[in-house]
Amino acid sequence: MEKKKIRATKIAITVLKVIAVAGLLTMAVCAPNALQALKIFDKRRRQTGQINLVLKRLIRQKLVRAFDERDKQCVKLTKKGEQYLAEYEDGHKKFPKPKRWDGKYRILIFDIWERRRRVRDELREWLRRFGFLHLQDSVWVYPYDCEEIVSLLKTRFRVGGGLLYIVAESIENDRWLRRGFDLPA
């Protein structure tokens, strides 16, 4: 049950971030494609239902507002939604972590051209805020599932293939990483 709650929270935050990045999202036309492009949700039958449930919950919590515009159902972030999202972005709130670590590392490798240095520096700052640890130049590590974060970052910074997400079972000499993430030795 706890795993479902963690996933629901991650999905809700991700939907809020997608809405924040897009500014205004047309659910009927844009949302399914935008969310599929971000590869946030698995390709299961309940994908659309999951998105709708999350959106309904966010509307109930007054984090987003639904309205009609030109015969299309749209959603927009409310002030309360912006504040809620800002708490995660500022590092005041953290993504919920599972009770047990699955023993796998999530590695991000990025290759962003020098002419986009500002984007690269901002991406590094976001990774620090989300709790990633710096492994080597342009290589960052996190011990928990963070595919939603990666998808959001790819979209926000328009880096697509320049940001690679890897799931690894082990990293050589990882004692310092385990200490840094407070994981069992």
UniProtKB/TrEMBL annotation:
<dbReference type="InterPro" id="IPR048846">
    <property type="entry name" value="PaaX-like_central"/>
</dbReference>
<dbReference type="InterPro" id="IPR036390">
    <property type="entry name" value="WH_DNA-bd_sf"/>
</dbReference>
<feature type="domain" description="Transcriptional repressor PaaX-like central Cas2-like">
    <location>
        <begin position="99"/>
        <end position="171"/>
    </location>
</feature>
<dbReference type="Pfam" id="PF20803">
    <property type="entry name" value="PaaX_M"/>
</dbReference>
<dbReference type="GO" id="GO:0006351">
    <property type="term" value="P:DNA-templated transcription"/>
</dbReference>
<dbReference type="InterPro" id="IPR036388">
    <property type="entry name" value="WH-like_DNA-bd_sf"/>
</dbReference>
<protein>
    <recommendedName>
        <fullName>Transcriptional repressor PaaX-like central Cas2-like domain-containing protein</fullName>
    </recommendedName>
</protein>
